[in-house]
Protein backbone atom coordinates (compact mmCIF):
# COMPACT_ATOMS: atom_id res chain seq x y z
CA UNK A 1 0.00 0.00 0.00
CA UNK A 2 1.22 3.48 -0.77
CA UNK A 3 1.01 6.28 1.80
CA UNK A 4 -1.66 8.97 1.31
CA UNK A 5 -0.07 12.32 0.20
CA UNK A 6 -3.30 14.33 0.24
CA UNK A 7 -2.66 16.12 3.58
CA UNK A 8 0.82 17.23 2.44
CA UNK A 9 -0.60 18.54 -0.85
CA UNK A 10 -3.36 20.41 1.00
CA UNK A 11 -0.78 21.96 3.32
CA UNK A 12 1.48 23.08 0.44
CA UNK A 13 -1.52 24.48 -1.46
CA UNK A 14 -2.60 26.41 1.65
CA UNK A 15 0.94 27.79 2.12
CA UNK A 16 1.11 28.89 -1.52
CA UNK A 17 -2.29 30.61 -1.22
CA UNK A 18 -1.18 32.40 1.96
CA UNK A 19 2.03 33.56 0.26
CA UNK A 20 0.03 34.94 -2.68
CA UNK A 21 -2.28 36.84 -0.32
CA UNK A 22 0.73 38.36 1.49
CA UNK A 23 2.43 39.33 -1.76
CA UNK A 24 -0.78 40.88 -3.09
CA UNK A 25 -0.69 43.36 -0.19
CA UNK A 26 2.84 44.44 -1.05
CA UNK A 27 2.90 47.86 -2.70
CA UNK A 28 6.42 48.39 -3.89
CA UNK A 29 6.83 51.28 -6.30
CA UNK A 30 9.60 53.70 -7.20
CA UNK A 31 9.81 56.63 -4.79
CA UNK A 32 10.11 59.25 -7.53
CA UNK A 33 7.60 57.71 -9.95
CA UNK A 34 5.51 60.15 -11.91
CA UNK A 35 2.29 58.36 -10.95
CA UNK A 36 2.85 59.23 -7.26
CA UNK A 37 3.53 62.91 -8.00
CA UNK A 38 6.43 63.06 -5.53
CA UNK A 39 8.78 64.70 -8.02
CA UNK A 40 6.21 67.43 -8.66
CA UNK A 41 5.61 67.94 -4.93
CA UNK A 42 9.34 68.28 -4.26
CA UNK A 43 9.36 71.35 -6.51
CA UNK A 44 6.83 73.01 -4.16
CA UNK A 45 9.08 72.81 -1.08
CA UNK A 46 10.61 76.01 0.25
CA UNK A 47 13.63 76.09 2.55
CA UNK A 48 14.26 78.49 5.44
CA UNK A 49 17.03 81.05 5.30
CA UNK A 50 20.43 79.92 6.64
CA UNK A 51 22.18 81.33 9.70
CA UNK A 52 25.72 80.10 9.08
CA UNK A 53 27.98 78.77 6.31
CA UNK A 54 27.13 75.11 6.91
CA UNK A 55 23.39 75.81 6.72
CA UNK A 56 23.97 77.77 3.49
CA UNK A 57 25.75 74.81 1.88
CA UNK A 58 23.04 72.38 3.01
CA UNK A 59 20.30 74.74 1.80
CA UNK A 60 21.91 75.26 -1.62
CA UNK A 61 22.15 71.49 -2.10
CA UNK A 62 18.55 70.96 -0.93
CA UNK A 63 17.20 73.60 -3.31
CA UNK A 64 19.11 72.05 -6.21
CA UNK A 65 18.07 68.47 -5.36
CA UNK A 66 14.41 69.28 -4.70
CA UNK A 67 13.80 71.37 -7.81
CA UNK A 68 16.24 69.66 -10.15
CA UNK A 69 18.22 72.86 -10.61
CA UNK A 70 15.16 75.02 -11.37
CA UNK A 71 15.50 77.11 -8.21
CA UNK A 72 13.05 77.81 -5.43
CA UNK A 73 9.27 77.97 -5.90
CA UNK A 74 7.67 81.41 -5.73
CA UNK A 75 4.68 80.12 -3.72
CA UNK A 76 5.79 77.05 -1.76
CA UNK A 77 3.21 74.62 -0.38
CA UNK A 78 5.63 73.06 2.11
CA UNK A 79 8.43 74.57 4.16
CA UNK A 80 11.55 73.01 5.65
CA UNK A 81 13.09 74.74 8.65
CA UNK A 82 16.44 73.38 9.71
CA UNK A 83 19.57 74.00 11.71
CA UNK A 84 22.95 72.48 10.99
CA UNK A 85 26.22 72.46 12.89
CA UNK A 86 29.56 70.76 12.47
CA UNK A 87 32.54 69.85 14.59
CA UNK A 88 36.01 68.60 13.70
CA UNK A 89 38.15 66.29 15.80
CA UNK A 90 41.13 63.94 15.62
CA UNK A 91 40.45 60.24 15.48
CA UNK A 92 43.69 59.30 17.22
CA UNK A 93 44.83 60.63 20.56
CA UNK A 94 48.53 61.27 20.06
CA UNK A 95 49.87 61.96 23.53
CA UNK A 96 53.07 61.04 25.34
CA UNK A 97 53.14 58.23 27.86
CA UNK A 98 52.75 60.66 30.75
CA UNK A 99 49.69 62.26 29.00
CA UNK A 100 51.00 65.77 29.56
CA UNK A 101 51.54 67.12 26.07
CA UNK A 102 50.57 66.20 22.55
CA UNK A 103 53.10 64.65 20.25
CA UNK A 104 53.55 66.78 17.14
CA UNK A 105 55.06 65.27 14.04
CA UNK A 106 55.85 67.67 11.22
CA UNK A 107 54.51 66.96 7.73
CA UNK A 108 52.66 63.80 8.78
CA UNK A 109 48.89 64.04 8.39
CA UNK A 110 46.77 62.94 11.33
CA UNK A 111 43.46 61.15 10.78
CA UNK A 112 40.45 63.24 11.69
CA UNK A 113 36.72 63.51 11.21
CA UNK A 114 34.10 66.16 10.68
CA UNK A 115 30.66 65.48 12.11
CA UNK A 116 27.68 67.38 10.72
CA UNK A 117 24.33 67.30 12.50
CA UNK A 118 21.15 68.60 10.90
CA UNK A 119 17.74 68.89 12.56
CA UNK A 120 14.82 69.70 10.28
CA UNK A 121 11.05 70.06 10.27
CA UNK A 122 8.83 69.68 7.18
CA UNK A 123 5.59 71.64 7.53
CA UNK A 124 2.54 71.96 5.27
CA UNK A 125 2.08 75.74 4.95
CA UNK A 126 -1.72 75.93 4.45
CA UNK A 127 -2.59 74.38 7.82
CA UNK A 128 0.75 74.37 9.68
CA UNK A 129 0.78 70.59 10.14
CA UNK A 130 4.21 69.08 10.77
CA UNK A 131 4.75 66.18 8.35
CA UNK A 132 8.29 65.19 9.37
CA UNK A 133 10.68 66.10 12.14
CA UNK A 134 14.08 64.42 12.35
CA UNK A 135 17.78 64.73 13.07
CA UNK A 136 20.48 63.27 10.83
CA UNK A 137 24.20 63.03 11.43
CA UNK A 138 26.88 62.60 8.77
CA UNK A 139 30.59 61.91 9.31
CA UNK A 140 33.29 62.82 6.81
CA UNK A 141 36.87 61.60 7.24
CA UNK A 142 39.86 63.93 6.77
CA UNK A 143 43.64 63.99 6.99
CA UNK A 144 44.69 66.91 9.18
CA UNK A 145 47.97 68.44 8.07
CA UNK A 146 50.43 70.29 10.26
CA UNK A 147 50.03 73.37 8.08
CA UNK A 148 47.37 75.81 9.25
CA UNK A 149 45.82 76.67 5.88
CA UNK A 150 45.80 73.04 4.73
CA UNK A 151 44.11 72.05 7.98
CA UNK A 152 41.40 74.72 7.58
CA UNK A 153 40.86 73.80 3.92
CA UNK A 154 40.56 70.07 4.64
CA UNK A 155 37.99 70.78 7.36
CA UNK A 156 36.00 73.02 5.02
CA UNK A 157 36.10 70.43 2.22
CA UNK A 158 34.91 67.75 4.64
CA UNK A 159 32.09 70.03 5.81
CA UNK A 160 31.03 70.54 2.19
CA UNK A 161 31.04 66.76 1.53
CA UNK A 162 29.05 66.12 4.69
CA UNK A 163 26.58 68.89 3.78
CA UNK A 164 25.97 67.36 0.33
CA UNK A 165 25.41 63.93 1.84
CA UNK A 166 23.10 65.31 4.55
CA UNK A 167 21.08 67.17 1.90
CA UNK A 168 20.60 63.93 -0.02
CA UNK A 169 19.37 62.15 3.12
CA UNK A 170 16.98 64.99 3.95
CA UNK A 171 15.67 65.14 0.38
CA UNK A 172 14.93 61.40 0.43
CA UNK A 173 13.12 61.67 3.74
CA UNK A 174 11.12 64.65 2.53
CA UNK A 175 10.16 62.71 -0.61
CA UNK A 176 8.98 59.79 1.53
CA UNK A 177 6.90 62.13 3.72
CA UNK A 178 5.40 63.81 0.64
CA UNK A 179 4.55 60.44 -0.91
CA UNK A 180 2.10 59.90 1.96
CA UNK A 181 0.28 63.14 1.17
CA UNK A 182 -3.11 62.71 -0.55
CA UNK A 183 -3.19 63.23 -4.30
CA UNK A 184 -4.73 66.53 -5.42
CA UNK A 185 -8.08 66.01 -7.05
CA UNK A 186 -8.14 66.64 -10.77
CA UNK A 187 -11.02 68.81 -11.91
CA UNK A 188 -12.16 67.95 -15.42
CA UNK A 189 -13.71 70.69 -17.50
CA UNK A 190 -15.54 70.45 -20.79
TrEMBL record:
Gene3D superfamilies: Lipoprotein like domain. It comes from the Bacteria. This is LPS-assembly lipoprotein.
Amino acid sequence: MSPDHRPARRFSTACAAAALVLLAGCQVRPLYSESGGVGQRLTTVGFADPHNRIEQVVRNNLVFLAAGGAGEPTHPEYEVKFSAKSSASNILDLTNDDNTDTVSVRNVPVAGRVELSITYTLTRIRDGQVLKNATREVVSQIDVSGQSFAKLRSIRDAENRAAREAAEFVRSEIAIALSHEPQPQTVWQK
